[in-house]
Specification:
By secondary structure, the chain is mostly helical. The chain is built from twelve helices and five strands. About 35% of the residues are buried. Bound molecules: tryptophanyl-5'AMP.
């Protein structure tokens, strides 16, 4: 039996942080050998909010190197640049004409980002989830591993696919495959270091709110030293009054590869002064191999270019086949 297909992506907007790593990439790496995987760099999504054209290409490059540095293995996984596969934009248009506007207006992430943008909200920001649906549906993905914040977008993707199948599918022959989200509870929602009730995010103006995968050890130490805590001695999980405590213990648990019970016992009598150096140490140790590998890959641009070239060819083959199938179902005159 052939392997099921996995697809996921990350926006090319600046450095990846621990949330992206623990909520997404780390899980991709862990499951990749069981699936046929496509992982891409979402550079079309990156321009849905104001951005700097001078850094877009570099950000894409850096993200590619980071995927590999984190352990994406080309034996199992294809990696590629979203904008290099033009089928993503084309399918987005077709799906736009099938997706009701009010489905998009309901999206929590749109509402949150739109508030931050003020007057300057683009049509692209509203349309973001349709592009995401196109990304997924083009590859007939069975599973989409993401963090918790993407759940609503995946539900929308499923709704769009069902709608296309209902309107244009022939009996027993759906046009699009309905994908399943794959959200692993541990690390699905890493919170900000400066406010344990907000998720860690690339768009937070404060660098102190997140640990980036490429932060040097001194920077990690400083951020953990200054991160928000509380005056209570004894560290516990799951106390709604202590969101920062829960978040930091969870980070420690995942990075130290321990069970929740082990960490609960280890930290129950600790104060922050004792805990913070422990968290710093496991964070620095977990990121060191990624940072070393990243540097190695960035020093070999020819290799990275060849990987991207191979990736786009494989991705295009799959994406273009699906696009033709959709256009055919929608009634388009085939290209002669
Ligand atoms: P992006 O770049 O915002 O996030 C990339 C991945 O990181 C996860 N993530 C988190 N997980 C845990 N805690 C956090 N604080 C945290 N912050 C981010 C996200 O859930 C995501 O898995 N829209 C997507 C990119 C995308 C995509 C797709 C994903 C575009 N097309 C198709 C899957 C399939 C996004 O959120 O990017």
């Amino acid at each position: 039996m052939s392997k099921q297909r996995v697809l996921s992506g990350i926006q090319t907007t600046g450095n990846l942080h621990l949330g992206n790593y623990l909520g997404a990439i780390r899980n991709w790496v862990e499951i990749q050998s069981q699936y046929d995987n496509f992982f891409f760099f979402a550079d079309l999504h990156a321009i849905t909010v104001p951005y700097d054209p001078k850094t877009l290409a570099d950000n894409t490059y850096n993200l590619a190197a980071l995927y590999l540095a984190c352990g994406i293995d080309l034996q199992y996984s294809t990696i590629f640049v979203q904008s290099h596969v033009t089928a993503h934009s084309e399918l987005t248009w077709l799906l736009n004409c099938i997706t009701p506007l009010n489905w998009l207006e309901r999206m929590i992430q749109f509402k949150e980002k739109a508030i931050k943008q003020g007057e300057n909200v683009s049509v692209g920001l509203l349309d973001y989830p349709v592009l995401m649906a196109a990304d997924i549906l083009l590859y007939d993905a069975d599973k989409v591993p993401v963090g918790e914040d993407q759940k609503q977008h995946l539900e929308l993707t499923r709704d769009i696919a069902v709608r296309v199948n209902d309107k244009f599918g022939k009996k027993k022959e759906p046009v699009l495959k309905i994908p399943e989200p794959l959200i692993r509870p541990e690390g699905a929602r890493v919170m900000s270091l400066t406010d344990g009730t907000k998720k860690m995010s690339k768009s937070d103006p404060s660098e102190m709110s997140r640990i980036s995968l490429l932060d040097p050890p001194e920077e990690i130490k400083k951020k953990i030293k200054r991160c928000k805590t509380d005056p209570i001695k004894g560290l516990v999980f799951d106390d709604p009054e202590r969101p920062e405590c829960h978040n930091l213990l969870s980070l420690y648990q995942i990075l130290a590869n321990k069970t929740k019970q082990e960490v609960a016992t280890e930290c129950q009598d600790m104060g922050w002064g004792q805990f913070k150096p422990l968290l710093t140490e496991v964070t620095v140790e977990s990121l060191k191999p990624i940072q070393d590998k990243y540097q190695e890959i960035m020093d070999n641009k020819d290799y990275l270019n060849s990987v991207l070239k191979e990736g786009v060819a494989k991705a295009e083959e799959v994406a273009n086949t699906t696009l033709s199938r959709v256009k055919d179902a929608l009634g388009y005159l085939p290209r002669l």
